[in-house]
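WARN retry 2 of 3 for item q-0093 after timeout on previous attempt; input resubmitted unchanged.
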Amino acid sequence: MAKKRFYYDGKNRRPEGDAAPQAAPAREAKQGRRRRPAASRAAAAPAPLRYTEEKRALTLAELGVDEALSGLLASKGIATAGDLVSRTERDMFRVQGFNKKMLLRLKKCLNDREMDFLPAAAEGDRPAAQKGEAREQTRRSGEREDSRRGASTDSRRDRAREGRPGDRKKPAPVREERPKKLTEPLPVPEWRKVQKNGKWGFFDGFNTVIPAIYDEVFFFKDGLAAVENEEKCGYIDPTGEVVIPLMYETAMSFSEGLASVVSGGKCGYINKQNEVVIPFVYDAATPFEGGEAKVKKDGRWGTLFPDGTVRWIV
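OK item q-0093 returned
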């Protein structure tokens, strides 16, 4: 090996003709990095809003939604067009008392403003950039899995050489969960809605227990179910008997012994004997929950209690 000469201050000074040693050119950092495809970089950018902020800020009243429906939606924090267009049609049915006719009214109000509900996500609708990112992620995961398997194989081989048994337990087989087969009819609150010839009834998992004769039905709550025929609403019991005549314009499910119904364009509350407990004086009303309901009158919202008293929101 050739001897390397070192130069220090005061000793072995470097001759003026000697050239300073050259460092090996470093490989540019960019060459060692894997650049993400342009499509992937584009996919990382936040998706633009579907509608302008001005449209999304429209209140339900400005959209033309009636007060009764506005009150029902407000109880679930839905107050603007932005709250609607950020939900799918299926999401809306999570609101207690919401039905198909209400959905059609909302869609018309949104369509009049050139808006609509959020479409259901589908695999085929994903942007190509997202698909490319997913493929890249899958490839990287495969490389990591191959590396992990190789390391695991080496570890097992080393243990075998040393005469030690492997300490890795064999994973238990994963069993696919299957829906439990019904062995007895469903309880009344879990009866399923069944449709036949455009009409609705109820099914207990084995038989049709309420014939499909209604334009709309709602699930049983507090022992009664709201039904609708020819734009009039009433209530039936689990035997199918009409216990409250179909006489109301709108009827919500019973909760805590009371139900909000609409008569003459105003909301009030009845009990299971069809007695008016809270008069029809409100423009909008929601079901009772935890001993309270929300009501609207003359543009003001308040908290209603079962005894009829209201604490108005200033």
